[in-house]
Description:
By secondary structure, this protein is of the alpha+beta class. The protein has seven helices and four strands.
Amino acid sequence: xxxKPTFDEYILKSEEFAQPILIYLRELIHRTCPAIQxxxxxxxxxxxxxxxxxxxxxxxxxxxxFGFGLAQQMTDSQKVFIQGEKTGMxxxxxxxxxxxxxxxxxxxxxxxxxxxxxxxxxKQAQNTRTIxxxxxxxxxxxxxxxxxxxxxxxxxxxxxxxxxxxWISEAKTETTRDKRITQAIEWISEGKPRNWxxxxxxxxxx
Length: 206
């Protein structure tokens, strides 16, 4: 079992709710695929099998995520992959507990299928999915205009704009929403996408 201290450090620094999820997934992946290797890519844990990313996981402030490198080529026989804009960067939505994952039996079956695809030399397909542009809430739009950074916001990709819109729209209270808008304004004015902290290109720039 090739375990690197960097994974341990990543998990320990993750939010308390996310740690059991990441520990569970890590153990399950190693048990199912003993040949797996751990690598930190894009500043979050990836599990490499025969030189390619088999699966990856990450812990964010409000959710954890887990996904397959060849998800688009997999059959998803149990229809457990989450589709649409709220995937949380993974295939199982925005996870807040282990119970939100499919059963261990299903996960093991999916890991075996993914390994078989890698054994067969299947490569990741180019993503041609059209991303729907989400409507910007008026209060956020007004804040962008007030700070004269609407053009900066529009220069982001559709996915990056949607990340901000979704983050602000999901706020449970007005106080949280206003706090997120203030933070978004600061980051956008600096040219930073919503998840800049987890992007390799921004590593070390904070």
